[in-house]
Write a structure and sequence with these properties.
Layout: E1 3-4, E2 63-69, E3 100-106, H1 116-124, E4 131-137, E5 176-178, H2 195-205, E6 222-228, E7 236-237, H3 239-251, E8 256-259, H4 268-275, E9 280-284, E10 312-318, E11 337-340, E12 344-348, E13 351-355, H5 358-375, H6 381-390, E14 393-394, E15 406-407, H7 410-414
Parallel strand pairs: 4-6, 4-8, 5-6, 8-9, 9-10, 10-11
Antiparallel strand pairs: 1-7, 2-3, 12-13, 14-15
């Protein structure tokens, strides 16, 4: 059994401003230069690319232009008897004016997580507690200038001596552990397989006011524990590695876990491990079928997204116009809340890039959970879940799609009254 990380990687050109990761999606989305315009309102002036972080502040100035082919490649329809395509097997693809259509999506001002009021309260507080967030994913670039101050450090371990100094069963686990390859090296600079985890980590906790982007929590009180369970260019992993990573996270001080992956195959041991944990799990709802069309995970379960446990928050992908992305899974029982997940700029190894999918929505909620948990030392992680879901901002477009009928609103969550009713 394997877990498949099915995050859609969106092609987007941002002139000299970021490194772009690109992969064709089932909808053949192509964006032209300048198609995604920055927010000019200055969310975080100390962070160069914060103006592109529409999920944090959306003033309505963004516009997405997509050029979609009206025809699929019909070459596979003509095959030789042995199964290989012949020399004249493909029909020509129409490239004329009628071969493509242009679709424009305009942003709706205010469709963002309302982070600024929360930052004001958080920055003024003198009682913020330290929080460790486990990112159970691919590895992450621990040397990235926006992340190096945000990485959890195991102070009981002596790096590089090959000895398990703290007796936790893992030698040299200074920043976490690589369960995929079975070693302490949580980042490989020689491959691109750690892009996904680096992007997730940046959304949660990239340093604020230090150039680059603004992470939701910043780097002072929230630290990221890197636990690699997904590897290769396909982002695959085994449930037993996820289970081991969860147990490591809890044993070594993490209180919140981000799980930006899903599978259609159920693992009883993994379900039991999550249910019996004292941590809060924020998980991606998943990115639809093979055609990129979102699935109702109440009817077609995805795991861990469909687990009905009180310590799980399942997150769908919200576009900047206030609609769920067409690729996003949903479900009025299994999906709890929506959060920005399309065209999200964050850290990638050696730079910055856009990615899209519920894998990008989940860390928005994870960052909000960590920020609130740090701000409210009287809260348990279940109180945090209640606050985030109970304060969700209702949108008519989300009715019958997620349990709260709403999107993440961090400012409202900071004003939540403990003990109020939540979904």
């Amino acid at each position: 059994m394997t877990f498949l990380n099915r995050t859609v990687l969106a092609a987007c050109l941002l002139a000299a401003a970021c490194t772009v990761t690109s992969q064709a999606s089932p909808r053949d989305r192509v964006t032209g230069p300048g198609a995604l315009l920055p927010d000019s309102s200055g969310l975080s002036p100390g962070d160069t690319y914060a103006e592109y972080q529409w999920g944090l502040k959306n003033d309505g100035s963004l516009q997405l232009v997509e050029i979609r082919s009206q025809f699929a490649d019909s070459g596979d329809a003509y095959e030789t008897p042995d199964g290989e395509r012949g020399p004249h097997s493909g029909l020509p693809i129409p490239y004329g004016p009628g071969g493509y259509q242009v679709y424009t999506t305009d942003a709706a001002a205010g469709v963002d997580i309302n982070i600024e009021p929360a930052w004001e309260l958080y920055d003024a507080s003198q009682t913020n507690r330290d929080v460790v967030v486990a990112v159970i994913d691919t590895g992450a670039d621990i040397l990235h200038p926006d992340l190096r101050d945000s990485i959890w450090v195991n102070g009981d371990e002596i790096p590089g001596d090959g000895i398990d100094n703290d007796g936790n069963g893992y030698a040299d686990d200074c920043f976490g552990w690589d369960f995929f390859y079975g070693d302490p090296f949580v980042f490989s600079a020689q491959s691109s397989e750690d892009t996904h985890g680096t992007h997730v980590a940046g959304t949660i906790a990239a340093g604020r006011h230090n150039g680059g982007i603004a992470g939701i929590t910043g780097s002072e009180h929230v630290k990221i524990m890197i636990l690699k369970v997904l590897g290769t260019s396909q982002g695959i992993g085994a449930p037993e590695d996820v289970i081991a990573a969860i147990r490591y996270a809890e044993a070594n001080g993490a209180s919140i876990c981000n799980l930006s992956f899903c599978s259609g195959v159920y693992s009883q041991e993994l379900a039991d491990t999550i249910q019996n944990s004292g941590m809060l799990f924020v998980v991606a709802a998943g990115n639809g079928d093979e055609n990129g069309i979102g699935l109702n995970i109440d009817q077609i379960p995805a795991y861990p997204a469909s687990l009905p446990f009180p310590n799980v928050i399942t997150v769908s992908n919200l576009m900047f116009d206030g609609n769920l992305d067409t690729s996003s899974n949903f479900g009025p029982e299994s999906a709890d809340i929506a959060a920005p997940g399309s065209y999200i700029v964050s850290t990638i190894p050696g730079g910055y890039g856009f990615l899209s999918g519920t894998s990008m929505s989940a860390p928005m909620v994870t960052g909000a959970a960590a920020l609130l948990y740090s701000y409210r030392p009287d809260y348990t992680v279940l109180d945090v879940r209640d606050a985030l879901l109970g304060s969700a901002r209702e949108l008519t477009t989300l009715g019958g799609r997620v349990a709260t009928s709403g999107m993440l609103d961090v400012g409202a969550a900071f004003l939540w009254e403990k003990g109020s009713t939540a979904p």
